[in-house]
Amino acid sequence: MPTFENPDISDIYLDDVGTVFEAARVAEVKPGTIRVWESRGKIERIPLAGGEALYHLPTIKAAAKVPAGRPARAA
Questions:
Q1: What's the pTM value of the predicted model, to 2 decimals?
Q2: What is the Cα–Cα distance from 2 to 42, expressed in whole angstroms?
């Protein structure tokens, strides 16, 4: 289960969907970072049959707001 889940497929608008390159632009990161986030379970692709990976851009934008790195240890 990803940290930032997509909304239900019936609640996703076509204007809110983008490729890995559009997702990277929205998040202000490189496309490789989007792929790393996906492989580490931070985000997920939109579950469509076949073809290119598509992402829910508002979810990507929310994931990008979380600072990189590990949380500080408690004292």
A1: 0.84
A2: 5
